[in-house]
Amino acid sequence: MTLQGWMQIALYGAVVLALVKPLGGYMTRVFNGERTLLSPVVAPFERGLYRLSGIDARQEQSWLGYAGAMVVFNGLGFVLLYALLRLQAGLPLNPAGQAAVAPDLAFNTAASFVTNTNWQSYGGETTLSYLSQMLGLTVQNFVSAASGMAVAVALIRGFGRASTKTLGSFWVDLTRATLYVLLPLCLLLALVLVSQGMPQTLGPSVEATTLEGIRQTIAVGPVASQVAIKMLGTNGGGFFNANAAHPFENPTALSNLLQMVAIFAIGAAMTNVFGRMVGDERQGWAILSAMGVLFLAGVLVTYWAEANPNGVLAHLGLSGGNMEGKEVRFGIAASALFATITTAASCGAVNAMHDSFTALGGLVPLLNMQLGEVIVGGVGAGLYGMLVFVIVAIFVAGLMVGRTPEYLGKKIEAREVKMAMLGILCLPLAMLGFTALATVLPAGLAGPANAGPHGFSEILYAYTSAAANNGSAFGGLTANTPFYNATLAVAMLLGRFFVKIPVLAIAGSLAAKKTVPASAGTLPTHGGLFVGLLVGVVLIIGGLTFFPSLALGPIVEHLAGEAGQTFPAGG
Fold this sequence. Notes:
mainly alpha; two-stranded antiparallel ribbon; 19 helices
């Protein structure tokens, strides 16, 4: 651990915090339908889209209508993407002549990108055509992110409105999130990334001759545009198999910083949108503070674990940090920071191989995802995930003081708590259920590259990443098999829609309630006491649920390493 490393982490945090208020204010105006700087250019196009699709922007939807529109839209996106992948061999913009994607892999990939997961069981540059990358994956990167933002805004309206049955229009929120937020930010970021040396071309792969006289094919393509939305939309799918460790996908130290900032920018600013739309910005800052506490703890543990030798190296008399699996351009601090960021958000981009992290260094990314990726989280998804925990925390506080829990003037009753617990419990069901299945079936046991606890961690990480809609991988699991493609796809769908629908049910229930004035017994929800309570609830629920699985994987691997014990390679 070095001063330079901590300065990098401090700089990153300062940049993200500086963006929260201006970006949050802008997005608030967008979702409230107010005039913005981009309105003269974008508003005519927005109105044209509504006329073309027959949408009345003034007509709002109930929570059931909102949820139905969301499910139908994402379902159609899944079908279209699956068809595109299966037919890509006969479609244009395929200069490398990529074959049609296999049925199980196409199913997995379609589920992955529709759910904003971007898990990839394939190498992007060797599997997909330019058309599949642009029309299929990049489009889903935009609309899946916008879908998450729309659900978050609907939940915010549920807290902010009173005695109403409507939450806004899914179609309007989706359109505005895409046109006013994601597209302009991605255009700006893509141009900056191109200036750093990132390719953006429709030309074929480049043929080069090495100094040894060997001919080499260098894949290029529309990289910058996909990287911009994969980061800003917390998607995470890499154009190249090496993801953000590839020099074309992450050329410089500046591009590395910008990509990390982009992962957190919108998710952090959504907390400010929440505060503004409910009429009390302090509420948003309190939620962001809870996220910040959990994030800083994760960075501290990961950086410490990677900067010090693990037990096996210490027994061999070796000192220094763990550089295995890390891009030497970025080093330990930037790699530990990136790993914590990408798993605290539902991004999944990586600039180092998590499979090569130390046992405790790999535990933090796992735990970040198992907590529901509420530490800033995905765009929209992180906020509504944390608000689900807020409801549980308020309920616990009400039990302790013996009164009906309230939050922002709304009484939290049985319906909201039941829906919140349904949203929370569907994640361990998918993560732990499929992990248990994979560790006893031959098809599952054929996947991990390592034996012992690390092999178990590879399986656990895969299903955790899928259900949390993260998409990153340990890197040691052979997942491109019918068993893993099918089960991971189901885990992704469960982790996305079995959370979204209960969240919208909560929003509809809250919006229909009257607002009650605060009294002397109302728990203040903008101070340090509430932040501590919220952090405690998140950790206790995560700890009670996932500690046994973590004990079987990274914790026992760490203890074995401290004793100098290793495990032979093999499944």
